[in-house]
């Protein structure tokens, strides 16, 4: 398979951080050329940034996940300052998650707004997490001008209607191992319909391992199973999906520098 990019992973999480050399070796052997290690708290951000500083093929983001409580609440100014680093290519992950949170969630919405404001100022794309909150997610993205920053709806699990609305805002759609699950027919339909130039693949590791590793610890090398399933849904080859999603990654995250010349040929997926 052509080179792949894991556009969303958490290499600083247990247990991946305890066996990182082996994880990275398997990724390289599996054709994964680059990875984006995503921040979920400001407290852990130095770990994420350090990984990107230590490895030419790992990039970092800065942000606070919508489910994180009892952590430093980020201001736009803090996010903007931390994003001012050559290895930090995105703001997030951010967004809304009503599945795991209860009560008055205006705090979560305000956190999301702060990330969008920071991304607009930093001119770096957003990594958006949404779960059981599509209407509010899209509304806040529209109200805060998220289109100006651009970004990706990561680990997408919503309907085609939600995908289309996000696409209309200029966002990319990233698919994870969930697309390989037997019950994911609706998501495979989304995978089939997303325009080729707005498609990304990811692992979200160490979570959501794809079939045939479902229930086990996920890792970047498994992103190829996501690409294979997306290729099957679209009636094309895994090589085409690998090439297209790799090109899309560098088109979206424009401050991410690819090591070596780009020799891939652009295909239609």
Strand and helix map with partners:
Layout: E1 4-9, H1 20-29, E2 32-37, H2 45-54, E3 58-62, H3 76-83, E4 88-97, H4 106-122, E5 126-131, H5 134-143, E6 151-153, H6 160-168, E7 171-175, H7 185-193, E8 199-201, H8 223-234, H9 238-252
Parallel strand pairs: 1-2, 2-3, 3-4, 4-5, 5-6, 6-7, 7-8
Structural descriptors:
37% helix, eight-stranded parallel sheet, 269 residues, 8 strands, globular, TIM Barrel, single chain, alpha/beta, 9 helices
The number of domains is 1
- Intertermini distance: 15 Å
CATH class: Alpha Beta
Q: What is the succession of H and E elements?
A: EHEHEHEHEHEHEHEHH
CATH topology name, in short, is TIM Barrel
Could you walk me through the main structural features you see in this protein, from its secondary elements to its overall organization?
It is a single chain. The protein has helices at 20-29, 45-54, 76-83, 106-122, 134-143, 160-168, 185-193, 223-234, 238-252; strands spanning 4-9, 32-37, 58-62, 88-97, 126-131, 151-153, 171-175, 199-201. It is of the alpha/beta class and 269 residues long. It has one domain: TIM Barrel. Helix 4 links the parallel strand 4 and strand 5 (126-131). The chain starts with a strand and ends in a 17-residue tail after the last helix. The model is unreliable at 260-266 (pLDDT under 50).
Give a concise summary.
The chain has 269 residues and is α/β, with parallel strands linked by helices. It is 37% helix and 16% strand.
